[in-house]
Amino acid sequence: MHHECGLIGLYHVDQAATKTYYGLYALQHRGQEGCGIYTCDEQSFEGQKSFGMVRSVLEDKVEKLEARGARNALGHCLYVSKENHLTSNLQPMHFRHMRAEFALASNGSLLNQEQLCAELQQNGAIFQSTSICEILAYLLVQNKDKFLPALTSSLQRLVGSFCYVILRRDKLYAIRDPLGMMPLALGRLGEGWVIASENCAFDIIGAEFVRDVEPGEIIEISANGLSSTRFAERQKSAICLMEYIYFARPDSEIDGINVHLSRFRAGMQLARESFAPSDLIVGVPESATSTARGYAEECGVPFDQGLIKNKYSGRTFIESTQTRRDLAVSMKLSPIHPLVKGKRITLVDDSIVRGTTSRQIIAMMRRAGAREVHMRIASPKMISPCFYGVDTSSYDQLIGSTRSTEEICRCIGADSLAYISNEGLRRAIGRDSVCDACFSEHYPTPLFDYKNIIDAEKERRARCHTGNEKDLEKTL
Questions:
Q1: Cα separation of 445 and 159, whole Å?
Q2: Which residues pair with 272 in a beta bridge?
């Protein structure tokens, strides 16, 4: 299951369900397909979850969740691919076993999921979902140790990018994968604690950021306070570059780096590398707005809001089907005709994945009277699938995997197209220790279940290089 989801957990906090609701509202950009909240006290768990946005699903359920006065809660907003659009995938998930009862929520992807599923089923597991939550839950309950040692050894079996938050009746656990590929932050709220995918969720509920959860760390929060356990040795981290480029909110800080400022610097670097003579710089809202401002400042060309976003629309990249993405673009963006008409426009966007959105936006600008439309992209060209959390797990979903920059430029209808360099992006963000697999094909972990996809692509390329024109034509 490939997803970018939002997690929030609260421990020993008044009005825990209400604060979890508002925290999920701040994390809505990480998942629009479904959401849920579980609360617990010393007696029992209570939960609400469904498909839909946070407000529509939970607004009228919070009062019921607050009725028992529980001070511990766990929330989740879900992005799920169309292949895994199952009610059973909604989170948090509640598990009851003779050795433990807990609610569990996750973000990420396991590359050895098929292998673990097969092994667990041999030992009697019956899976109801395709979520990585069930993998960890079954590993936990099949381990006869006490909870924390069982959790530690279970996590050592997992390979991939993942964060988990686990809620027990008297404890809250926060877990981040050994490479730190997914973000997870720790905050303080009065005498209580908060865990969230991004610290933008802290501001809305009045919590104070304490630190990031470290890669390979388990944080246990209980009545005795906070304790830390490592389930993996310290190693070079590999935060997903897409967090800084697209997924995270601009007001978040991930591993000490502000997302807005990193995007602004990326825009400046992009202008240094590939300036196009223009009359106006326009950012594709909203993830590229910071980047476009940096681009405009560096090259001295005016920036303006040439595209207006419908504030009630969602994020087109994480729509689950191509038809929905196409319709969402039309509903989401509109050009300001007087600003655009007769001008040479440079459109700055965060990425090109399939190319459909870029083509539609450029066509909009031309219909609005733009004389030229140049496209500048604040990430390198995506040439390979992501198996760690971005829903692009095959080469045919990526226009950059089979086409040159010049071919992509023609496909999207731009007058020119350029991407930021990988080195330039790392310099702009301010860190070199990242996962850039979708831009470089350098995967930081073994691929396990997905190795066949890479092998098939290598075989296809080998056929093309030996002059098989029919195979070559299929890629263009």
A1: 7
A2: none
